[in-house]
Amino acid sequence: GAGVSQSPRYKVAKRGQDVALRCDPISGHVSLFWYQQALGQGPEFLTYFQNEAQLDKSGLPSDRFFAERPEGSVSTLKIQRTQQEDSAVYLCASSLLTLAEYSNQPQHFGDGTRLSIL
Amino acid sequence: SQQGEEDPQALSIQEGENATMNCSYKTSINNLQWYRQNSGRGLVHLILIRSNEREKHSGRLRVTLDTSKKSSSLLITASRAADTASYFCATDGGTSYGKLTFGQGTILTVHP
C-alpha cells in the first residue's frame, strides 16, 4: 500500500482481556518498529524487527506484551491480560532498509491504534 | 522513559509569524529527526539532520544542530494555520538500526 496501515484504529477492552493489534508496513520495507505513546507524551520504543527477526524487544513493558512478524511483512502486537496502564496509542513504523545498509533514513508511521482498557 | 526535552511545551502564535522549537538530548547520535503529529494521527517525517551537519533547510523549515551542546532547533517561517500540530524531535542514540528516542513534544497553535 501507499503507507503504513494499522488496525483497528480504536480498540476498547475490559481489563484482563487479550488484544491483538495489526500493522501492515509499506511493501518491501525491511525494518519495522512498534512504539507506545501515552497521552501528551512522545512515542516510546517497544520493539524492532528486521524482516522476520525480532532484534530488539528491550522496550516491551512486561512479558504480557508479545510481537511477531512471521513472514517479514505484517506484524502483530499482542497484549495479554490487559491492564489499565496499557491504555495508550500504539504506533507502528517502517523503513526501507536497515540502518547498516543506509543510514539516515526516516521512519514512516501509521496512524496508530488507540487502546482503551476499562 | 523520555530521553529528550523540548522547549517550549506549548507555543501559540499568529499566522505569518515564525515559530522556533528547541530540543535537547543526552546520548551520541547518528542523526536527529523532526516529526509532526496532527491530532489523532501518526507522525509525519519533516526533516533529518546528520550528526556532522550544522544546519539544514527544507521549504519553510530550518533545522540547526549543535552536537557539543546536544541540542537542536526547528524554525518554521511564515507559519500557517495548517502548521498547528505537535512537533517532536527524535534521536537514534547511535544504534545500528535506527531505534528512535523522542522528546515530549511542542504543541504549536497557529491562529488565523
Range of strand content of chain A? over 45%
Q: Could you give a short account of the major beta sheet of chain A? A: 7 strands, mixed
Order of helices and strands of chain A: EEEEEEEEEEE
Number of helices of chain A: 0
Helix content of chain A: under 10%
Identify the overall geometry of chain A.
Answer: globular
Short description:
The complex is a heterodimer of chains A (118) and B (112). With 118 residues, chain A is mostly beta strands. Chain A has strands at 5-7, 10-13, 19-24, 31-37, 44-50, 53-56, 65-68, 75-79, 88-95, 108-109, 113-117.
SSE layout and pairing:
The complex is a heterodimer of chains A (about 120) and B (about 110).
Chain A: E1 5-7, E2 10-13, E3 19-24, E4 31-37, E5 44-50, E6 53-56, E7 65-68, E8 75-79, E9 88-95, E10 108-109, E11 113-117
Parallel strand pairs in A: 2-11
Antiparallel strand pairs in A: 1-3, 3-8, 4-5, 4-9, 5-6, 7-8, 9-10, 9-11
Chain B: E1 5-7, E2 10-14, E3 19-24, E4 31-37, E5 43-50, E6 55-58, E7 61-66, E8 71-76, E9 85-91, E10 101-102, E11 106-111
Parallel strand pairs in B: 2-11
Antiparallel strand pairs in B: 1-3, 3-8, 4-5, 4-9, 6-7, 7-8, 9-10, 9-11
Give structural notes.
The complex is a heterodimer of chains A (118) and B (112). Chain A is mainly beta. Chain A has strands at 5-7, 10-13, 19-24, 31-37, 44-50, 53-56, 65-68, 75-79, 88-95, 108-109, 113-117. In chain A, the strands form 2 sheets. In chain A, strands 2, 4, 5, 6, 9, 10 and 11 form a 7-stranded mixed beta sheet that branches. In chain A, strands 1-3-8-7 form a 4-stranded antiparallel beta sheet, with no helix packed on it. Chain A is globular, with a radius of gyration of 14 Å. Helices cover 0% and strands 54% of the residues of chain B. Chain B has 112 residues and is mainly β. Chain B has strands at residues 5-7, 10-14, 19-24, 31-37, 43-50, 55-58, 61-66, 71-76, 85-91, 101-102, 106-111. Chain B is built from no helices and 11 strands. The interface between A and B is medium-sized, with 32 and 29 residues.
